[in-house]
Predict the structure of HTH arsR-type domain-containing protein.
Amino acid sequence: MNHNCCPEEPNLTTRDLVTLEQAEQISQLFKILANPTRLRIIHALIKQESLSVSVLAEQIEMKPQAVSNQLQKLISDHIVTTQRSGNFIYYRIKDDCTALLLQRAWCLVEDTELIAKSEKIGALD
């Protein structure tokens, strides 16, 4: 993985407002990531760094062909890359930003669940 996730990018509060083209690119990225199978593949690759289709399929409990189809989408969108070793192809995350994005999304889900529970308890008082 690339070990420098956007090292020189300024904070969002100091950046110019996102352009329409940039917003479309970000939206396309979120569409690619808005798939439970692809998210599980990404998480498995973050945890193990490099895996074959058969091991990935076993870990996420899916058929290798289905995993392979999702990997092709992730490759075509430059999220996952491959490395050949003999007769085997291993898949890995291309950029650390992917792991950071998944971590932040997971954090947001957990935070919003806590907030919703807190608001529900507050409404009962």
Observations:
- The longest helix spans residues 96-124.
- The mean pLDDT is 90.
- The beta strands are 51-52, 80-85, 88-93.
